[in-house]
Design a protein that fits this description.
With about 475 residues, this protein is α/β, with parallel strands linked by helices. It has two domains: about 70 residues, no CATH class; about 400 residues, Alkaline Phosphatase, subunit A. Helices cover about 40% and strands about 10% of the residues. Strands 4-3-7-1-8-9-2-10 form an eight-stranded mixed β-sheet, sandwiched between helices. A three-stranded antiparallel β-sheet has the order 11-12-13, with no helix packed on it. The longest helix is centred in the C-terminal third of the chain and has 29 residues. The radius of gyration is 23 Å and the shape is globular. The chain starts with 9 loop residues before the first helix and ends in a 6-residue tail after the last helix.
Amino acid sequence: ACTVVAPSSAADSRALVRRTLANLACALAAFAALWAGVTVPDYFGQLGVGMEYWYTLDYYERQGFITTFVAVAQDLPVDEPEGYSDESARELEAAYAATYDETLGATEARAAAAEQFAEEQPTVICVMNETFADLSSLEGASWGYAGPERYASVDDALMGGELAVSVIGGGTCNSEFEFLTGIPLAYVGDGKYPYSLYDLSDAPSVAEQLSALGYSTTAIHPNYATNWNRDRVYEMLGFDRFLTIDDFAGAEQFHSGVSDAETYDKVLELLEADDGPQFIFDVTMQNHSSYDQGNIGEVEQYAVDGLSDYDNDRLSEYLACIEESDRALAELMAELEQLDRPVVLVFFGDHQPALSSIVADALYPDEDPSSLEHSLRTHETTYFVWANYDVAGSAQVSEELPTSPAYLAALMAEAIGAPLSDYQKALLVAREEMPCLSLVGAQGADGTWYELEDADALGAAYDDLASISYLEFASKLE
Protein backbone atom coordinates (compact mmCIF):
# COMPACT_ATOMS: atom_id res chain seq x y z
CA ALA A 1 0.00 0.00 0.00
CA CYS A 2 1.06 3.57 -0.61
CA THR A 3 -0.02 6.50 1.57
CA VAL A 4 0.25 10.14 0.60
CA VAL A 5 0.48 12.58 3.51
CA ALA A 6 -0.45 16.14 2.61
CA PRO A 7 0.59 19.20 4.65
CA SER A 8 -2.32 20.37 6.79
CA SER A 9 -1.83 24.06 6.06
CA ALA A 10 0.06 26.54 3.95
CA ALA A 11 2.44 27.07 6.87
CA ASP A 12 3.11 23.33 7.08
CA SER A 13 3.68 23.28 3.35
CA ARG A 14 6.22 26.09 3.55
CA ALA A 15 7.97 24.34 6.44
CA LEU A 16 8.17 21.13 4.42
CA VAL A 17 9.68 23.01 1.50
CA ARG A 18 12.25 24.66 3.79
CA ARG A 19 13.24 21.32 5.32
CA THR A 20 13.54 19.73 1.88
CA LEU A 21 15.69 22.58 0.57
CA ALA A 22 17.85 22.45 3.69
CA ASN A 23 18.41 18.72 3.24
CA LEU A 24 19.33 19.21 -0.39
CA ALA A 25 21.69 22.05 0.48
CA CYS A 26 23.43 19.93 3.12
CA ALA A 27 23.71 17.03 0.71
CA LEU A 28 25.19 19.24 -1.99
CA ALA A 29 27.63 20.74 0.51
CA ALA A 30 28.69 17.27 1.64
CA PHE A 31 29.15 16.14 -1.93
CA ALA A 32 31.13 19.30 -2.74
CA ALA A 33 33.38 18.61 0.24
CA LEU A 34 33.98 15.09 -0.98
CA TRP A 35 34.69 16.34 -4.49
CA ALA A 36 37.11 18.99 -3.24
CA GLY A 37 39.01 16.52 -1.11
CA VAL A 38 37.97 17.92 2.26
CA THR A 39 38.68 15.38 4.99
CA VAL A 40 35.53 13.39 5.67
CA PRO A 41 35.45 10.20 7.76
CA ASP A 42 35.00 6.89 5.99
CA TYR A 43 31.28 6.35 6.51
CA PHE A 44 31.41 2.62 5.79
CA GLY A 45 34.71 1.80 7.48
CA GLN A 46 34.80 4.24 10.41
CA LEU A 47 31.20 5.15 11.16
CA GLY A 48 29.59 1.77 10.63
CA VAL A 49 27.15 2.90 7.98
CA GLY A 50 25.58 -0.10 6.27
CA MET A 51 24.35 -0.63 2.73
CA GLU A 52 22.77 -3.42 0.74
CA TYR A 53 22.90 -2.13 -2.81
CA TRP A 54 20.20 -4.43 -4.13
CA TYR A 55 17.59 -2.21 -2.39
CA THR A 56 19.04 1.15 -1.36
CA LEU A 57 15.78 2.91 -0.47
CA ASP A 58 15.51 1.02 2.83
CA TYR A 59 18.91 2.35 3.95
CA TYR A 60 18.06 5.94 3.01
CA GLU A 61 14.95 5.64 5.19
CA ARG A 62 16.68 4.01 8.18
CA GLN A 63 20.01 5.88 8.21
CA GLY A 64 18.91 9.23 6.84
CA PHE A 65 19.39 10.78 3.45
CA ILE A 66 22.63 12.68 4.02
CA THR A 67 24.42 9.88 5.88
CA THR A 68 23.58 7.33 3.21
CA PHE A 69 24.16 9.79 0.37
CA VAL A 70 27.69 10.62 1.55
CA ALA A 71 28.52 6.95 2.14
CA VAL A 72 27.45 6.05 -1.40
CA ALA A 73 29.32 9.05 -2.82
CA GLN A 74 32.49 7.87 -1.08
CA ASP A 75 32.03 4.49 -2.72
CA LEU A 76 31.71 5.88 -6.25
CA PRO A 77 35.23 6.55 -7.55
CA VAL A 78 36.98 3.93 -9.67
CA ASP A 79 40.74 4.18 -9.17
CA GLU A 80 42.53 5.53 -12.22
CA PRO A 81 45.45 3.33 -13.31
CA GLU A 82 48.88 4.77 -12.63
CA GLY A 83 50.07 6.91 -15.53
CA TYR A 84 46.70 6.73 -17.27
CA SER A 85 45.62 8.99 -20.10
CA ASP A 86 42.79 8.55 -22.59
CA GLU A 87 45.22 8.91 -25.47
CA SER A 88 47.61 6.21 -24.26
CA ALA A 89 44.69 3.89 -23.46
CA ARG A 90 43.27 4.33 -26.97
CA GLU A 91 46.67 3.50 -28.43
CA LEU A 92 46.88 0.39 -26.25
CA GLU A 93 43.41 -0.75 -27.27
CA ALA A 94 44.21 -0.22 -30.95
CA ALA A 95 47.45 -2.18 -30.58
CA TYR A 96 45.66 -5.07 -28.87
CA ALA A 97 42.94 -5.07 -31.54
CA ALA A 98 45.60 -5.15 -34.26
CA THR A 99 47.30 -8.06 -32.51
CA TYR A 100 43.98 -9.90 -32.47
CA ASP A 101 43.44 -9.29 -36.19
CA GLU A 102 46.91 -10.67 -36.94
CA THR A 103 46.64 -13.74 -34.67
CA LEU A 104 43.40 -15.06 -33.17
CA GLY A 105 41.30 -13.30 -35.77
CA ALA A 106 43.35 -14.52 -38.72
CA THR A 107 42.59 -18.23 -38.34
CA GLU A 108 40.63 -20.29 -40.85
CA ALA A 109 38.16 -21.19 -38.10
CA ARG A 110 37.38 -17.55 -37.35
CA ALA A 111 37.01 -16.76 -41.05
CA ALA A 112 34.62 -19.68 -41.56
CA ALA A 113 32.51 -18.70 -38.55
CA ALA A 114 32.38 -15.06 -39.68
CA GLU A 115 31.22 -16.07 -43.15
CA GLN A 116 28.51 -18.28 -41.67
CA PHE A 117 27.34 -15.54 -39.29
CA ALA A 118 27.11 -13.05 -42.15
CA GLU A 119 24.80 -15.44 -44.01
CA GLU A 120 22.49 -16.23 -41.09
CA GLN A 121 22.59 -14.71 -37.63
CA PRO A 122 21.73 -17.18 -34.86
CA THR A 123 19.51 -16.32 -31.94
CA VAL A 124 21.57 -16.06 -28.75
CA ILE A 125 20.02 -17.18 -25.47
CA CYS A 126 21.96 -16.57 -22.27
CA VAL A 127 20.80 -18.18 -19.05
CA MET A 128 22.48 -16.84 -15.93
CA ASN A 129 21.22 -19.46 -13.51
CA GLU A 130 20.78 -18.40 -9.90
CA THR A 131 23.40 -20.00 -7.62
CA PHE A 132 24.14 -22.78 -10.12
CA ALA A 133 27.46 -24.43 -9.30
CA ASP A 134 28.98 -27.90 -9.36
CA LEU A 135 29.91 -28.55 -5.74
CA SER A 136 31.41 -31.91 -6.64
CA SER A 137 34.57 -29.80 -7.04
CA LEU A 138 34.61 -29.65 -3.23
CA GLU A 139 35.76 -33.26 -2.76
CA GLY A 140 32.35 -34.47 -3.90
CA ALA A 141 33.49 -38.08 -4.13
CA SER A 142 34.18 -38.09 -0.38
CA TRP A 143 30.56 -37.31 0.46
CA GLY A 144 28.81 -39.04 -2.43
CA TYR A 145 28.03 -36.17 -4.77
CA ALA A 146 28.83 -36.44 -8.48
CA GLY A 147 27.49 -33.08 -9.64
CA PRO A 148 24.64 -32.18 -12.01
CA GLU A 149 24.67 -35.24 -14.26
CA ARG A 150 22.74 -33.96 -17.28
CA TYR A 151 24.84 -30.82 -17.38
CA ALA A 152 28.04 -32.87 -17.17
CA SER A 153 26.88 -35.11 -20.01
CA VAL A 154 26.82 -32.27 -22.56
CA ASP A 155 29.65 -33.26 -24.90
CA ASP A 156 28.90 -31.18 -28.00
CA ALA A 157 29.31 -27.65 -26.67
CA LEU A 158 31.57 -25.15 -28.38
CA MET A 159 33.37 -24.64 -25.07
CA GLY A 160 32.81 -24.91 -21.35
CA GLY A 161 34.45 -25.34 -17.99
CA GLU A 162 35.21 -23.51 -14.78
CA LEU A 163 34.03 -19.93 -14.41
CA ALA A 164 36.01 -17.84 -11.92
CA VAL A 165 33.52 -15.40 -10.36
CA SER A 166 33.93 -12.44 -8.03
CA VAL A 167 31.06 -13.10 -5.63
CA ILE A 168 29.68 -15.78 -3.33
CA GLY A 169 26.24 -16.11 -1.76
CA GLY A 170 24.91 -12.94 -3.38
CA GLY A 171 25.90 -10.07 -5.62
CA THR A 172 24.23 -11.63 -8.65
CA CYS A 173 24.27 -8.25 -10.37
CA ASN A 174 28.07 -8.21 -10.43
CA SER A 175 28.40 -11.44 -12.40
CA GLU A 176 25.66 -10.04 -14.62
CA PHE A 177 27.53 -6.74 -15.05
CA GLU A 178 30.76 -8.48 -16.01
CA PHE A 179 29.05 -10.67 -18.61
CA LEU A 180 26.96 -7.94 -20.24
CA THR A 181 29.68 -5.26 -20.31
CA GLY A 182 32.94 -7.21 -20.39
CA ILE A 183 34.33 -4.94 -17.65
CA PRO A 184 36.23 -6.96 -15.00
CA LEU A 185 35.29 -6.08 -11.44
CA ALA A 186 38.96 -6.44 -10.56
CA TYR A 187 39.36 -2.96 -12.07
CA VAL A 188 36.17 -1.47 -10.62
CA GLY A 189 36.93 -2.32 -7.01
CA ASP A 190 35.87 -4.63 -4.21
CA GLY A 191 32.51 -3.97 -2.57
CA LYS A 192 31.16 -1.98 -5.49
CA TYR A 193 27.90 -2.77 -7.26
CA PRO A 194 27.87 -0.94 -10.60
CA TYR A 195 24.13 -1.52 -11.12
CA SER A 196 23.47 0.62 -8.04
CA LEU A 197 26.30 3.13 -8.28
CA TYR A 198 26.75 4.22 -11.88
CA ASP A 199 25.03 5.45 -15.00
CA LEU A 200 25.79 2.60 -17.41
CA SER A 201 24.47 4.33 -20.52
CA ASP A 202 27.95 4.57 -22.06
CA ALA A 203 29.25 1.20 -20.86
CA PRO A 204 30.02 -1.51 -23.41
CA SER A 205 27.04 -3.84 -23.80
CA VAL A 206 26.58 -7.11 -25.65
CA ALA A 207 22.84 -6.31 -25.87
CA GLU A 208 23.56 -3.01 -27.58
CA GLN A 209 26.15 -4.68 -29.81
CA LEU A 210 23.70 -7.31 -31.03
CA SER A 211 20.90 -4.78 -31.34
CA ALA A 212 23.08 -2.84 -33.79
CA LEU A 213 23.27 -6.03 -35.87
CA GLY A 214 19.49 -6.24 -36.12
CA TYR A 215 18.74 -8.39 -33.08
CA SER A 216 15.73 -7.83 -30.86
CA THR A 217 16.87 -7.85 -27.24
CA THR A 218 14.91 -9.12 -24.24
CA ALA A 219 15.87 -9.44 -20.58
CA ILE A 220 13.95 -11.80 -18.30
CA HIS A 221 13.96 -11.89 -14.51
CA PRO A 222 10.91 -13.42 -12.80
CA ASN A 223 11.03 -11.10 -9.81
CA TYR A 224 10.61 -7.41 -9.10
CA ALA A 225 11.88 -5.09 -11.81
CA THR A 226 13.52 -2.78 -9.27
CA ASN A 227 15.82 -5.46 -7.80
CA TRP A 228 19.37 -4.24 -8.40
CA ASN A 229 17.81 -1.35 -10.39
CA ARG A 230 17.34 -3.65 -13.36
CA ASP A 231 14.41 -1.60 -14.62
CA ARG A 232 16.83 1.28 -15.27
CA VAL A 233 19.99 -0.68 -16.00
CA TYR A 234 18.58 -2.88 -18.75
CA GLU A 235 17.34 0.18 -20.60
CA MET A 236 20.78 1.78 -20.25
CA LEU A 237 22.41 -1.36 -21.64
CA GLY A 238 20.21 -1.38 -24.72
CA PHE A 239 17.55 -4.00 -24.04
CA ASP A 240 14.33 -3.45 -25.98
CA ARG A 241 12.14 -4.98 -23.28
CA PHE A 242 12.27 -6.48 -19.82
CA LEU A 243 9.96 -9.28 -18.67
CA THR A 244 9.49 -9.31 -14.89
CA ILE A 245 7.35 -11.04 -12.27
CA ASP A 246 4.35 -9.25 -13.80
CA ASP A 247 4.79 -11.40 -16.91
CA PHE A 248 4.65 -14.66 -14.94
CA ALA A 249 1.17 -14.54 -13.43
CA GLY A 250 0.13 -18.05 -12.41
CA ALA A 251 3.56 -19.51 -13.19
CA GLU A 252 4.78 -22.67 -11.46
CA GLN A 253 6.84 -21.91 -8.37
CA PHE A 254 9.81 -23.89 -7.11
CA HIS A 255 11.71 -23.23 -3.89
CA SER A 256 12.34 -19.45 -3.97
CA GLY A 257 10.28 -18.31 -6.91
CA VAL A 258 9.24 -18.91 -10.48
CA SER A 259 10.76 -22.18 -11.70
CA ASP A 260 13.57 -22.31 -14.23
CA ALA A 261 11.29 -24.32 -16.49
CA GLU A 262 8.73 -21.50 -16.59
CA THR A 263 11.36 -18.99 -17.69
CA TYR A 264 12.49 -21.42 -20.40
CA ASP A 265 8.90 -21.73 -21.59
CA LYS A 266 8.85 -17.94 -21.86
CA VAL A 267 12.05 -18.05 -23.93
CA LEU A 268 10.46 -20.58 -26.29
CA GLU A 269 7.37 -18.38 -26.58
CA LEU A 270 9.58 -15.47 -27.64
CA LEU A 271 11.23 -17.62 -30.30
CA GLU A 272 7.87 -18.80 -31.60
CA ALA A 273 6.58 -15.23 -31.86
CA ASP A 274 9.55 -13.86 -33.82
CA ASP A 275 11.66 -15.72 -36.36
CA GLY A 276 14.25 -12.95 -36.54
CA PRO A 277 17.53 -13.05 -34.60
CA GLN A 278 17.07 -12.43 -30.89
CA PHE A 279 19.27 -11.92 -27.86
CA ILE A 280 17.50 -13.19 -24.75
CA PHE A 281 19.09 -12.80 -21.32
CA ASP A 282 17.34 -14.94 -18.70
CA VAL A 283 18.24 -14.37 -15.04
CA THR A 284 16.56 -17.19 -13.12
CA MET A 285 15.27 -17.17 -9.56
CA GLN A 286 14.29 -20.62 -8.23
CA ASN A 287 17.61 -21.52 -6.57
CA HIS A 288 17.87 -18.37 -4.47
CA SER A 289 18.63 -18.79 -0.76
CA SER A 290 17.70 -19.69 1.88
CA TYR A 291 18.05 -23.46 1.89
CA ASP A 292 16.12 -24.26 5.05
CA GLN A 293 12.69 -23.68 3.55
CA GLY A 294 11.63 -27.33 3.44
CA ASN A 295 9.19 -26.58 0.64
CA ILE A 296 10.26 -28.97 -2.13
CA GLY A 297 9.34 -32.33 -0.65
CA GLU A 298 11.73 -35.12 0.20
CA VAL A 299 15.27 -34.58 -1.05
CA GLU A 300 18.30 -36.82 -1.31
CA GLN A 301 20.35 -36.44 1.85
CA TYR A 302 24.07 -35.67 1.78
CA ALA A 303 26.39 -35.52 4.76
CA VAL A 304 29.77 -33.79 4.89
CA ASP A 305 31.86 -34.75 7.91
CA GLY A 306 32.27 -31.80 10.24
CA LEU A 307 29.01 -30.11 9.29
CA SER A 308 26.08 -29.87 11.66
CA ASP A 309 22.85 -31.70 10.84
CA TYR A 310 21.30 -28.32 10.08
CA ASP A 311 24.00 -27.39 7.57
CA ASN A 312 23.90 -30.82 5.94
CA ASP A 313 20.13 -30.41 5.57
CA ARG A 314 20.69 -27.01 3.95
CA LEU A 315 23.28 -28.49 1.62
CA SER A 316 20.87 -31.25 0.63
CA GLU A 317 18.09 -28.76 -0.11
CA TYR A 318 20.45 -26.66 -2.23
CA LEU A 319 21.57 -29.69 -4.23
CA ALA A 320 17.94 -30.66 -4.80
CA CYS A 321 17.46 -27.23 -6.36
CA ILE A 322 20.44 -27.85 -8.63
CA GLU A 323 18.96 -31.22 -9.61
CA GLU A 324 15.76 -29.47 -10.67
CA SER A 325 17.74 -26.86 -12.63
CA ASP A 326 19.69 -29.66 -14.29
CA ARG A 327 16.46 -31.38 -15.36
CA ALA A 328 14.90 -28.18 -16.72
CA LEU A 329 18.07 -27.30 -18.64
CA ALA A 330 18.09 -30.70 -20.35
CA GLU A 331 14.47 -30.18 -21.39
CA LEU A 332 15.25 -26.73 -22.78
CA MET A 333 18.15 -28.08 -24.83
CA ALA A 334 15.96 -30.89 -26.17
CA GLU A 335 13.42 -28.28 -27.31
CA LEU A 336 16.10 -26.14 -28.94
CA GLU A 337 17.49 -29.13 -30.81
CA GLN A 338 14.12 -29.54 -32.52
CA LEU A 339 13.99 -25.98 -33.83
CA ASP A 340 14.60 -25.32 -37.51
CA ARG A 341 16.63 -22.19 -36.84
CA PRO A 342 20.13 -21.61 -35.47
CA VAL A 343 20.28 -20.98 -31.74
CA VAL A 344 23.25 -20.47 -29.43
CA LEU A 345 22.84 -21.13 -25.70
CA VAL A 346 25.19 -19.61 -23.13
CA PHE A 347 24.59 -21.09 -19.68
CA PHE A 348 26.43 -20.16 -16.49
CA GLY A 349 26.02 -19.84 -12.74
CA ASP A 350 26.36 -16.45 -11.08
CA HIS A 351 27.93 -17.65 -7.81
CA GLN A 352 28.07 -20.44 -5.26
CA PRO A 353 25.77 -20.43 -2.21
CA ALA A 354 27.12 -18.84 0.96
CA LEU A 355 27.05 -22.24 2.65
CA SER A 356 29.87 -23.33 0.32
CA SER A 357 32.28 -21.54 2.64
CA ILE A 358 31.14 -23.76 5.52
CA VAL A 359 31.52 -26.85 3.36
CA ALA A 360 34.99 -25.80 2.21
CA ASP A 361 36.12 -25.05 5.76
CA ALA A 362 35.04 -28.54 6.83
CA LEU A 363 36.65 -30.32 3.88
CA TYR A 364 39.94 -28.38 3.91
CA PRO A 365 40.65 -27.79 7.62
CA ASP A 366 44.38 -27.29 7.07
CA GLU A 367 43.88 -24.35 4.70
CA ASP A 368 43.83 -20.75 5.87
CA PRO A 369 40.23 -19.63 5.14
CA SER A 370 41.58 -16.26 3.98
CA SER A 371 44.12 -17.76 1.59
CA LEU A 372 43.86 -17.40 -2.17
CA GLU A 373 43.68 -21.16 -2.60
CA HIS A 374 40.74 -21.46 -0.21
CA SER A 375 38.86 -18.48 -1.63
CA LEU A 376 39.14 -19.80 -5.17
CA ARG A 377 37.32 -22.98 -4.15
CA THR A 378 34.17 -21.03 -3.35
CA HIS A 379 34.42 -18.46 -6.15
CA GLU A 380 34.00 -20.87 -9.02
CA THR A 381 30.90 -21.86 -10.95
CA THR A 382 30.59 -23.48 -14.36
CA TYR A 383 29.51 -22.55 -17.88
CA PHE A 384 29.12 -23.72 -21.44
CA VAL A 385 28.42 -22.25 -24.87
CA TRP A 386 26.31 -24.64 -26.96
CA ALA A 387 24.59 -24.48 -30.35
CA ASN A 388 21.82 -26.47 -32.00
CA TYR A 389 23.58 -26.26 -35.38
CA ASP A 390 27.02 -26.97 -36.79
CA VAL A 391 29.06 -23.85 -36.12
CA ALA A 392 31.64 -23.37 -38.85
CA GLY A 393 35.19 -23.64 -37.58
CA SER A 394 34.24 -25.36 -34.32
CA ALA A 395 34.77 -29.03 -33.50
CA GLN A 396 31.98 -28.76 -30.89
CA VAL A 397 33.53 -31.27 -28.52
CA SER A 398 33.02 -29.29 -25.29
CA GLU A 399 36.55 -27.89 -25.23
CA GLU A 400 37.65 -27.19 -21.65
CA LEU A 401 38.27 -23.46 -21.47
CA PRO A 402 38.40 -21.97 -17.95
CA THR A 403 37.44 -18.30 -17.99
CA SER A 404 35.62 -15.49 -16.18
CA PRO A 405 32.32 -13.67 -16.81
CA ALA A 406 34.00 -10.57 -18.25
CA TYR A 407 35.51 -12.64 -21.06
CA LEU A 408 32.50 -14.84 -21.73
CA ALA A 409 30.45 -12.71 -24.15
CA ALA A 410 33.55 -11.99 -26.25
CA LEU A 411 34.42 -15.70 -26.36
CA MET A 412 30.88 -16.52 -27.46
CA ALA A 413 30.84 -13.82 -30.14
CA GLU A 414 34.21 -14.93 -31.48
CA ALA A 415 33.15 -18.59 -31.63
CA ILE A 416 29.95 -17.93 -33.61
CA GLY A 417 31.60 -15.49 -36.01
CA ALA A 418 29.95 -12.29 -34.80
CA PRO A 419 31.77 -8.99 -35.39
CA LEU A 420 33.90 -7.95 -32.42
CA SER A 421 34.51 -4.50 -31.00
CA ASP A 422 38.09 -3.37 -30.48
CA TYR A 423 37.49 -3.75 -26.75
CA GLN A 424 36.39 -7.37 -27.16
CA LYS A 425 39.45 -8.04 -29.29
CA ALA A 426 41.61 -6.56 -26.53
CA LEU A 427 39.88 -8.77 -23.95
CA LEU A 428 40.57 -11.89 -25.99
CA VAL A 429 44.25 -11.03 -26.51
CA ALA A 430 44.68 -10.23 -22.80
CA ARG A 431 42.97 -13.50 -21.97
CA GLU A 432 45.77 -15.41 -23.70
CA GLU A 433 48.09 -14.24 -20.91
CA MET A 434 45.45 -14.03 -18.18
CA PRO A 435 42.75 -16.70 -18.75
CA CYS A 436 40.77 -15.91 -15.59
CA LEU A 437 40.33 -12.62 -13.76
CA SER A 438 38.10 -11.86 -10.77
CA LEU A 439 38.12 -9.87 -7.56
CA VAL A 440 39.71 -12.90 -5.91
CA GLY A 441 42.74 -13.04 -8.18
CA ALA A 442 44.14 -13.50 -11.66
CA GLN A 443 45.38 -16.62 -13.39
CA GLY A 444 48.51 -16.61 -15.52
CA ALA A 445 48.90 -18.45 -18.81
CA ASP A 446 50.61 -21.36 -17.02
CA GLY A 447 47.61 -21.84 -14.72
CA THR A 448 49.19 -20.22 -11.66
CA TRP A 449 46.89 -17.96 -9.66
CA TYR A 450 48.01 -14.64 -8.18
CA GLU A 451 46.39 -12.24 -5.78
CA LEU A 452 45.63 -8.91 -7.43
CA GLU A 453 48.28 -7.25 -5.26
CA ASP A 454 50.83 -9.52 -6.99
CA ALA A 455 49.60 -8.77 -10.50
CA ASP A 456 53.09 -7.64 -11.57
CA ALA A 457 53.84 -11.34 -11.99
CA LEU A 458 51.32 -11.41 -14.84
CA GLY A 459 53.36 -9.14 -17.07
CA ALA A 460 51.88 -6.32 -19.12
CA ALA A 461 48.46 -7.87 -19.71
CA TYR A 462 47.01 -6.99 -16.30
CA ASP A 463 48.08 -3.35 -16.38
CA ASP A 464 47.22 -2.90 -20.04
CA LEU A 465 43.71 -4.25 -19.57
CA ALA A 466 43.31 -1.99 -16.52
CA SER A 467 43.88 1.06 -18.73
CA ILE A 468 41.77 -0.22 -21.62
CA SER A 469 38.81 -1.12 -19.39
CA TYR A 470 39.10 2.24 -17.60
CA LEU A 471 38.88 3.95 -20.98
CA GLU A 472 35.77 1.96 -21.92
CA PHE A 473 33.99 2.37 -18.59
CA ALA A 474 35.22 4.60 -15.76
CA SER A 475 36.45 7.44 -17.98
CA LYS A 476 32.88 7.85 -19.25
CA LEU A 477 31.30 8.18 -15.81
CA GLU A 478 32.33 11.79 -15.25
